[in-house]
Amino acid sequence: xxxxxxxxxxxxxxxxxxxxxxxxxxxxxxxxxxxxxxxxxxxxxxxxxxxxxxxxxxxxxxxxxxxxxxxxxxxxxxxxxxxxxxxxxxxxxxxxxxxxxxxxxxxxxxxxxxxxxxxxxxxxxxxxxxxxxxxxxxxxxxxxxxxxxxxxxxxxxxxxxxxxxxxxxxxxxxxxxxxxxxxxxxxxxxxxxxxxxxxxxxxxxxxxxxxxxxxxxxxxxxxxxxxxxxxxxxxxxxxxxxxxxxxxxxxxxxxxxxxxxxxxxxxxxxxx
Amino acid sequence: xxxxxxxxxxxxxxxxxxxxxxxxxxxxxxxxxxxxxxxxxxxxxxxxxxxxxxxxxxxxxxxxxxxxxxxxxxxxxxxxxxxxxxxxxxxxxxxxxxxxxxxxxxxxxxxxxxxxxxxxxxxxxxxxxxxxxxxxxxxxxxxxxxxxxxxxxxxxxxxxxxxxxxxxxxxxxxxxxxxxxxxxxxxxxxxxxxxxxxxxxxxxxxxxxxxxxxxxxxxxxxxxxxxxxxxxxxxxxxxxxxxxxxxxxxxxxxxxxxxxxxxxxxxxxxxxxxxxxxxxxxxxxxxxxx
Amino acid sequence: xxxxxxxxxxxxxxxxxxxxxxxxxxxxxxxxxxxxxxxxxxxxxxxxxxxxxxxxxxxxxxxxxxxxxxxxxxxxxxxxxxxxxxxxxxxxxxxxxxxxxxxxxxxxxxxxxxxxxxxxxxxxxxxxxxxxxxxxxxxxxxxxxxxxxxxxxxxxxxxxxxxxxxxxxxxxxxxxxxxxxxxxxxxxxxxxxxxxxxxxxxxxxxxxxxxxxxxxxxxxxxxxxxxxxxxxxxxxxxxxxxxxxxxxxxxxxxxxxxxxxxxx
Lengths: 272, 290, 264
Ligand SMILES: Nc1ncnc2c1ncn2[C@@H]1O[C@H](COP(=O)(O)OP(=O)(O)OP(=O)(O)O)[C@@H](O)[C@H]1O
Ligand SMILES: [Mg+2]
Description:
- The complex is a heterotrimer of chains A (272), B (290) and C (264).
- Chain A is an all-alpha fold and 272 residues long.
- Chain A has 10 helices and no strands.
- Chain A has 2 domains: 48 residues; 207 residues, MetI-like (MetI-like fold), CATH 1.10.3720.
- Chain A is elongated, with a radius of gyration of 22 Å.
- The relative contact order of chain A is 0.15.
- The N terminus and C terminus of chain A are likely disordered.
- Chain B is an all-alpha fold and 290 residues long.
- Chain B folds into 2 domains: 57 residues; 223 residues, Orthogonal Bundle (MetI-like fold), CATH 1.10.3720.10.
- In chain B, helix 2 crosses helix 10, helix 3 packs across helix 6 and helix 3 packs across helix 10.
- In chain C, the strands form 2 sheets. In chain C, strands 5-6-7-3-8-9 form a 6-stranded mixed beta sheet, sandwiched between helices. A 3-stranded antiparallel beta sheet of chain C has the order 2-1-4, covered by helices on one side.
- Chain C is globular.
- Chain C is built from 8 helices and 9 strands.
- Chain C is 38% helix and 25% strand.
- The model of chain C has no long low-confidence stretch (mean pLDDT 86).
- Chain C folds into 2 domains: 183 residues, 3-Layer(aba) Sandwich (Rossmann fold), CATH 3.40.50; 65 residues, no CATH class.
- The site of magnesium ion (MG) has 3 residues of chain C, from helix 1.
């Protein structure tokens, strides 16, 4: 199973298909995670660390359970903002990539930019977004869209740049533009788009939480973390962080499943 | 890595003729790319002005491009040139980013190597790494400031945290994709683990490691800025961003200037890594310099 | 270890290898007896999957035999490897793309800890031997497949081994290049007088090169026939026109067909 949250996938290599999950893949991380929690708990207990500084996992967990309903609501709102941002950003990026892929120098130039700003300094740009949209949910969505677009452009443009004997085939059967698009160009770009989403979607959660932290709709994870931390409610902050992690992992798994479904025809899925 | 083993070898003074010289070609391509990049910047500025004109947006929201640029020449309340003021703060941020990038790279490389070496460690750590990447660092920054103060240590911890992951994942993946037959080749010569790490695994993985490093470089700038945000920090782009944001009603141009500066600093970091990759890897660095 | 009696270059006695995996066990080698005199040239030919590579990998200490005895120059493979008694040429050139041709050839010497001037000197001599002296500073991608495989041979020769283990080294090459490299291998072999174990799928190649050919059958992999090739050395283009050459080709083909029949 691929595990990456950074722009690394050069090719949309869709990893070893995990049909049969060996025990190690489930058991080992559980052991590591348990060990990690145990050390944390012990360190806090034995070191007599104040709750204000760092609460023990057990304390965080009981808070998490108590506030679960609220946290889910916050996560849903954050997820919705991130989702909207990803949709808008991807739509613009893929559209742009499709438009310019015939124009070599322009495509190349835009690629240079998008690969150089691999990680936009969100904290620096979010204030600018609020100039346009006010300190609202819209600003968060816009920030996610802006942050996600360069990544999606990079991948989509790679997807569109492919040529193969299939192009000759399309030509030989005099396929019109629409058929060429739906039967060849878009499916060929799909693995790349999916690879881009695997990077972009987890990132979108982080971007929206950072943005919300600086203002936005009140009932979101970022805003909640901000509010509780100014009141020095450290335990509440950490339970929200746990929810943020869960949300991140959840969307990562969701994209992987989507990817698996959409790309069932891809050669990387071939049984061996 | 000594990539220039042959440079000193006297045996090989005669140059082979029939080898195409890619350096000149790539230089020309690089210059053309720079020109295109500048051209695109001009287009972006023109689009900005067009959008402003068509939508009739006021100067408060969308100042003219030339007004923003002109603001760089103004003086601050401390009677300082504004550009100089930005550069000074950017330098402070850059120093913190660099330290974090270096520390994070060292940790990332060692973790990546152990993940690639041991299936147990790999299986155990990879899912945790995915989860840990989802931790919103802004949420932890205030807590860290509580422990460690607003000084350099906090900045280093945050930037290290952010740069660690991309380097780790890239190193692990790079080493894991070394072909079996190359391993066998070194095995037949009885190479030790350390030798094959030095001669095979690291060189093989380095193009991918550099891709990870580029991401890490961008993240390190973001991390340093985030570390400067909590109350009490005195200098750095993060501080300038917060103050400019407070006063943007009276002076929107300052906010645009510092936002652009942050982007430029990030780009400088990414491009520096790419440049290092270009010299370290030669033709194997697939990426263009720009 | 080596008594007064002549030490064999390669020796296997009742060699067996069983791979066990989830899909079921595979008896890759069974009761394989093989003797190659020092300085001899033995080819192994057999259907795909019959265990040729496994046999070669057992000699090169990449695979642990399940049963039986095996030795290289009278030593156990692990000892022989430590003493740099053999060099291996893989089916693919297996060059490291970031190293120049010269530095690919120096790799084994670098692992041994030879100092730089010496290893460059040696590597250059080896490259001259395979006719690539002027390509020392090129990178692998600038070479054709045949040239790359010659670099791989130079690399295997760089430690001055007395045994060469070659696993279908020319399998991926076209007929013409292959013929040329065969001639070259003969020349090199003549100069170095090494023991060579050579795996191939090509009957003509086997006949042209070897002093002896072992024909293998598959599942379980065993040697079904040993054919002596009594063509005169040095062999050259005329060798291929000799009537004896054709007779041998026919004989090997017959043996191969019989070996396949045994399998099914
Ligand atoms: N590491 C391994 N694990 C399990 N089975 C193996 C392994 N290596 C080889 N085998 C099995 O052993 C048998 C012999 O393989 P080997 O590679 O020696 O064949 P070969 O004669 O070299 O074939 P080819 O001519 O195609 O190269 C095959 O059935 C193969 O599936
Ligand atoms: Mg084989």
